[in-house]
Amino acid sequence: MTARIIDFLNTRRPDGPCLVVDLDVVRENYLTFAHALPDTRIFYAVKANPAPEVLALLASLGSNFDCASVAEIDMALAAGATPDRISYGNTIKKERDIAAAFARGIDLYSVDCEAEVEKVARAAPGVRVFCRILCDGAGAEWPLSRKFGCEPEMAIGVLEHAQALGLRAYGISFHVGSQQGNTEAWDGALASAAGIFHTLAERGIQLGMVNLGGGFPTKYLKDIPGVENYASSIDAALKRHFGNRIPETIIEPGRGMVGNAGIIKSEVVLISKKSADDEVRWVYLDIGKFGGLAETMDESIRYPIRTSHDGDAKTPCILAGPTCDSADVLYEKAPYELPVTLSIGDEVLIEGTGAYTTTYSAVAFNGFQPLASYII
Amino acid sequence: MTARIIDFLNTRRPDGPCLVVDLDVVRENYLTFAHALPDTRIFYAVKANPAPEVLALLASLGSNFDCASVAEIDMALAAGATPDRISYGNTIKKERDIAAAFARGIDLYSVDCEAEVEKVARAAPGVRVFCRILCDGAGAEWPLSRKFGCEPEMAIGVLEHAQALGLRAYGISFHVGSQQGNTEAWDGALASAAGIFHTLAERGIQLGMVNLGGGFPTKYLKDIPGVENYASSIDAALKRHFGNRIPETIIEPGRGMVGNAGIIKSEVVLISKKSADDEVRWVYLDIGKFGGLAETMDESIRYPIRTSHDGDAKTPCILAGPTCDSADVLYEKAPYELPVTLSIGDEVLIEGTGAYTTTYSAVAFNGFQPLASYII
């Protein structure tokens, strides 16, 4: 919650739900990462919030960009990043998209299997690749599946295959899970990475880089460790596993860069009970799972919600979105405490919504417009 | 799978994932409903697929329209429906949206609590309202929550309140759950509805209508009962509970009207394993949970998938989408059997995708375009 956002909402009074992002907070987050991890290059995860103003600010501050598609690469280029500051970080790429990235000068690609290496070797000869390894994700609030990465033993073969096909086997990446609350979560993956570096060195392949991924949390309801805590834990783990041969490192913050910079303004559309003796109220907002709050899936991310009645007594509510979809319920298994004085028509502010909201928004489900966004 | 769709795909060869909808199938579905339920008015659930061509066809056939928002009302009007053929079927409406619908001449509104009745009474004086009651949804494949509707006992008070505020207490609605496989699912709710009719009649309020909702399935992997089976079961339940005073009835098919009219064309982007001894393959498509296949949430809807290798031996696969989101996995708990000969770059056809796909698509998650749609 920043004074600039409150002032914007009071002055502009936009109709309908909207996200407002304060660029001053994004700047502060970038500088905090850069200060805490001075030897690490920052690749902003564009997918978290690709608003042109956010990308332009980060480009001007010196950030690099982790892109998931050719469209995101084009956005990063348009924001002023040069191709050497962009990685194509999706392990799942069409060969023609790899060719399009190569034509734009992109030199750094993510892989996690031999088939992907072969596509990169054909479509982007000679570029650098890093292999993503699996990580268990314990401690993360957003579920981490086995979708990306391979077992560390397999990564050795993947990178040997890359080198054999004329690519440059450049490093290892992993992801400790989004909204990771455990500052020690990087240790196990760094141990695996060091083992791969060692094995490949014995086979004549010198890796140079470890991509530490994202996972840096933003503050929702619970307090989170500061970036400096993550930095010192990662620094200690790097020294523990790599000794005096610390590789180049990069990080890919997304949520940690923009999450706390944004607030969604919403409106209470209806408050009701299902029977006279119902103990919880149903509170329906004008934004839900399909309007930008997709990360409430399985009630994973629990956003702080401010109302003008905060301070009044609270009772448990089931919180739901405005669409005619019975699955469009935000919090029900663990009801959300809201003021008893909350009324239909009241404005509510949903904090920590700068990341993973606008782009998740459905194009027009139930005829509702996608989430509007103002970058100030 | 229709010859027209196959011909379209072979001739046009669109790049990227897309939905193709065959209007001949929509016409056939409409006529099947109209024939099986000759005394029931059909209100197409616009949210299932609001493509202008679909709405225009249904309007020309005589369909009415169940709309979830003012934007959907405007689409139905633009397609040629008059206001008397449109209901505002969302129980969660902003008062200013009710006023906008009233200004367009809409006379039929859904409610499920007294607070919503009060909004309608203020913003749309004198209109007809129906009260939605809860239904357990047993037998449905898409989860039905308690989000919409109230307990039948409460509906009596809601409709009395409506009448007292100058509205016309017009009927009862319920929803037996989407993709409902049990043709008898309507019986319990019709018993409740008849009870409410009876109680209100004793209090001097004559209800006239039962809205039987949607729930009519489309064929995915399993065979489904024909519409005529649903019709005869509903007819018997109406007679059982209403005797010789059968009310006006309406249905709101969405999935049952357009689901089997559409096919999504997709492409295999990657096939991989996570370790040398992995027993399942990971198959990554260029469409996933955020590109239109949102109904794979919790693996609820299981689409039939056709490949050019059908007939070859099959092995279990984990099916996932193309985004950098670990939650973008379609089928994993119950892996999907696909041909061992399936290769990267192969086209796959996902059947039964005419409903609840395009509008669920995210605006630009990971930079991917929303699902393209061709109505032929």
From TrEMBL, chains A, B:
Cofactor annotation: pyridoxal 5'-phosphate
Its recorded reaction(s) are:
L-ornithine + H(+) = putrescine + CO2
Which top-level enzyme class is recorded in the Swiss-Prot or TrEMBL entry? lyase
Pathway membership, UniProt: Amine and polyamine biosynthesis; putrescine biosynthesis via L-ornithine pathway; putrescine from L-ornithine: step 1/1
Enzyme Commission code(s) on record: 4.1.1.17
Family designation: Belongs to the Orn/Lys/Arg decarboxylase class-II family.
Q: Can you name this protein? A: ornithine decarboxylase
Q: Which organism is it from?
A: Kaistia dalseonensis
